[in-house]
Amino acid sequence: MKKFTCILLFGLCASCGNVSAQNTFRAIVKSAGDDSDALYGAAAVIDTNLTGLADSNGMVVIQNIPNGEKAIEFSYTGYFKKKIKITFPQPANAVTQVKLQTQALEEEDVVIASTRNYQKAEYDPTQVDVMDAGEVEQESHDKPSDVSHILREQPGVQMERTSATDGTMGIRLQGLSSDYVQVLQDGFPLFGGFSNVLGISQIPPLNIQQVEILKGPESTLYGGDAIAGVINLISKQPTETPVYDLMFNGESAQAYDGGFYASQKIKWFAFSLTGTYRYQKQKDWSGYGFTETPLMNRYVISPQLYFDLSKHVRLNIGGSYTHENRVGGSDAWFNGTSDSTNNYYERNISNHASSNFKFEYDFGSKGTLTIKDAFNYFTRSLQLPYYLFAGTQLASASEINYHVAVKKNDVVVGIDVRTDKFTEGADSSLTKRNYNFITYGVFAQYMYHFDTKTTLEAGFRLDYNNVYRVYPLPHVAVLRKWNDIFSTRVNFGMGYKLPTIFQAESEEARFINVLPIATNITPELSFGGTFNWKAQLPNFNGVHITVNQLYFFTEIVHPLIADTASFNCPTGDCIQTSYTNSNGYTQSAGVETGFNLKYRGLETGLTYTLTDSHNKYNDVLGNPVLSINPLTSKHIVSMLAGYSIKNFFIGLDCYYYSPVKLDDGTTGKDIWEVGISTQYAYKFLLVFANLENIADIRQTSYGPVVFPNPTYAHPAFAQIYGPLEGRLFNAGIKIHLGYFAKKKKEPGSGIEKLKEKDD
After folding, report:
1. How many CB atoms neighbour CB 236 within 10 A?
2. Average pLDDT, the chain
3. Contact, 260 vs 275, CB < 8 A?
4. 34-84 pLDDT per residue, tens
5. What's the chain's Rg over C-alpha atoms?
């Protein structure tokens, strides 16, 4: 009897222990996006035999779980699975928060401002490459001083250095030089002509929100200088959430950047203020006795004011001022050991002041009237030991346009006036190279949406110039979305460019013995187009693959070419440069193939650009002579990869440029550039570090780029086709002071408002 009683008590105790070991698990399952929607029907599984489904609030309840560590797997259609480990027993009424990452590709709607219709990118017939705010922010940390590194990331874009010692540069686009690329900021032509080669290297990325690149002839939209394409830099717009950013950056080559960006919208008033400063010490990377990195001091200040004068009226006024002093030259000159045979230097001092004005009246369904104006004042002096080139450029662009969208029709009509006046300094050359252009234009652009899959765009511009008379410019584009995967775009247009001495050849000659443009010279005319197809493959377990193919073609009829001739002179500068219209053409054609893959936090991109850029001119006997366009790589490969996990990002970029032909008939070397970038964000602080040109590949590794002529007092320079700076490390921080301000939910402003209007 006693034995039976003990067994019974033991069984009861074991039973009680079993009961006490049964636990209940509760979790709320939501999406990992900003909206954090509850995932109704999400499944949770423990040990394959205990399961639960989320209710309409995302709540999952699983009962009868034994004590110990358990692995719980959550799943939901269209989302990545997630596994967590929980040790039981848990505190009473404990609720675990679980967020699942969607497999869908989350992309913000991007509105294109450059094509004037303010269409979302997916509906715009014109082919536009866009870098959104996230990409611009990320890439700007690689080189916080200017936007050149951001632009280099884009397919078909090359940075073209025009000086071996002071670092001036331009942009080559699809095999054509920077003379044919128009750079805009918020649709205003702030950098062109005299200011072209300094403009790109002076624009800070701190206040840039979006970059839009239109490839091919785009003069129909923006007049002259847009033969190869247009690059439009879109500024950040103030929001009700205050933004106060401080940025500090240091480079291993003894260069330092500081900057701030502040913006906020307060009821009907908004403002933004950008300021940057850069100090850069000169450096001779090659050891040949000349600087490849110049000594530089530069500061930029740009205030902008925005007014919502009424429900229908918006006004934006602002300005910008840039001062820069950059000096490159021989080590002997910098060290104070120069003599009559080695005392060379180049000093560039520039001042760029600009203003912008934009007035918008929204008539609601009846359209929008826009009046805008930009004025630019640019001075530059280029001083050598034995020569001074200086001048002043006054330029303006004024425009009135009206945009209305009715059902399937979208129309923009407008008139504009553009001026460009250059006056050479009194102490410069004896033969002044002044000009004064005034161009009046009328333009119209019509877009018709046949249905949700087909859109036609047609435009026409008629320009009248006070010197070169009338130029008609048509444009047509067609978008066809064949299905959810495949779409095509076709663009065709014409362009023109007014002739000035501000060509790459003049910069390379430092404007010495460059003759004025003769009266018999005519503007360059072009025609060309692009054909693009894009395939966005279906999502497969969160893997997103996009293939993009672009074919481009541009022909410039009777292009402006530089003729050089030697003459007897007492110095080493005995080459005279003049410009004339060729009796042939320049043609650039090719294909860009892009492959992009995204999976969770991983994104990789591979782009190959094949370019055939050549000239076909008749010789003195009338025989056609074919030659490759100098400084154009036939093959360019870019490989970009980035991985984000929580607040950390690491990226790798690699570029290959095939050998280029040079003016003297020789061929350059292959160029590889490899860089790695990292950044970490924590609340109000962002820390970044980057290493550029890891392989330390420099053009000067293959020989000098500066030669005595006959001494280093009057040096001669090789054409620059590759990097001159070596391995470079930079690191810095960005402090978001707006983090400490009271957060407000944003209704949207600026371009975001235009999105809402389109919707």
Report:
1. 21
2. 88
3. yes
4. 667 889 889 999 987 788 889 888 999 998 889 988 999 998 877 888 899
5. 31
* 8 Å CB contact between 128 and 115: yes
For residue 125, cis peptide bond before it (omega within 30 degrees of 0):
no
CB 690 within 8 Å of CB 678: yes
Residue 118, token pair as written in the block: 């303010």
What is d(CA 292, CA 286) in angstroms, rounded to the nearest whole number?
A: 8
- Write the pLDDT tens digit of every residue in 503-517: 888 888 889 899 999
Collapse the DSSP code of 702 into the 3-class scheme (helix H, G, I; strand E, B; otherwise coil) and give the result: helix
Please give the angle made by the CA atoms of 406, 409 and 413, to the nearest 5 degrees.
95
Query: Would you list the DSSP string of 43-82?
Result: EEEETTTEEEE--TT-EEEEEEEPSEEEEEEEE-TTB--E
Structure tokens at 142: 């690689």
pLDDT at 752 over 50: no
Encoded amino acid at 667, one letter: T
Q: What is the DSSP letter of 154?
A: S
Measure the CA–CA gap between 390 and 425, rounded to whole angstroms.
Answer: 5
Any idea what DSSP says for residue 482? -
DSSP 8-state secondary structure symbol assigned to residue 123: G
Specify which residues 674 forms β-bridges with. 654
One-letter-per-residue 3-state SS of 248-303:
EEEECCCEEEEEEEEEEEECCEEEEEEEEEEEECCECCCCCCECCECEEEEEEEEE
Tell me which of 179-193, 338-352, 493-507 is least confident: 179-193
Q: What is residue 316's three-state secondary structure?
A: strand
Bridge partners of residue 392, in order along the sequence: 379, 423
Cβ proximity of 550 and 531 under 8 Å: yes
Q: Is 240 exposed, middle or buried (0-12, 13-18, 19+ CB in 10 A)?
A: middle
- pTM, two decimal places: 0.85
Percent of the chain clearing pLDDT 70 (strictly above): 93
Q: What is the DSSP letter of 38?
A: B
- The whole-angstrom separation of Cα 32 and Cα 78 is 12
Looking at the predicted structure, is the pLDDT value of residue 191 above 80? Answer: no
Distance of CA 693 to the CA centre of its chain: 20
Residue located via tokens 């005392």: 343
Using an 8 Å Cβ cutoff, are 239 and 749 in contact?
Answer: yes
For residue 710, is the peptide bond before it cis, meaning its omega torsion is within 30 degrees of 0? yes
